[in-house]
Amino acid sequence: MATTLKQTCSRIFLVCVIAVAIQVMFFSPLPDIPQPSSSLPFPSNSKIQEVIKLGQGFLKQPEAVAVDKTGVLYTATRDGWIKKLFRNGTWEDWWKIDDTDGLLGLTATATGGVIVCDADKVMFADDVIESSDGTLYFSIASTKFGLHDWSLDVVEAIPHGQLLKYRCLKYWLKGDLKGQIEIFIDNLPGGPDNINLPPDGSFWIALIEIFPSKMRFLYTSRASRYLIGAFPKLSQWVIAPHKKAMVVNVGSDGKIVRGFDDPTGKVMGSVTSALEFEGHLYLGTLYNDFIGKLPLPT
Predict the structure, then answer these.
(1) Residues 96-121: pLDDT tens digits?
(2) What residue intervals traverse the membrane (predicted)?
(3) Is 0.85 topped by the overall pTM?
(4) What domains can be seen in the chain, in order of their start residue?
């Protein structure tokens, strides 16, 4: 009797394994996607390792930086605070947004206010900018998955937002091309997170390497991609941004002018935004407890 029960259980287990294998291997909805460039578009220079650390220990994962007309800097942290850095170097807890750990990008408006993205309130709102006519434009990293499930977007590899694109798009608001979209730059060596405009009309783009070589098996094995997608908690363990900080400066023609990096994440584990102000780059990050201030070479 015991032997028969054991055999029955073994057969049921085997059937379940086969069923799961068939599901994993033949019914995956995930298409193949191209890999990003494996080489840097600029010589690795470790310049980001030279940053001055601002607010170290006072800031919890400051994702982005904004500056107002008076030169006061703002950042939003994961503990729900918007914090200010005055010109004399002092910090202030300026505004508390209760019950959230999803504060990300922000911008200072022409009227002196501050608009911040709360990814918990607006589905994965990642960045915001104000146009010359006062219109606010928000970028949404994913319309399907939230901030705390971002790894599932990586697994699914379907463009629910711009998180998984190794390119930046240009949307024409005015002129003969109004309403049209074109590729501004592609084949970047990482996922573009935030874009900021310096005074010279170029663009600073922060890059996150979310597909290090150690996990590219997800995109060569259909079975492994579906298996991770079927068990969401595994995705958070397998998929983690590689500790490597990169920013690139791109001209209006879509060509890279220069770039800085921390190739091993020694000082900054990642950079999620880069704001140029008065000859310095202010670097936001979700890895560290400070904002990096990098003097720009002249």
Answers:
(1) 987 777 788 899 988 888 988 887 77
(2) 12-30
(3) no
(4) 47-295 (2.120.10.30)
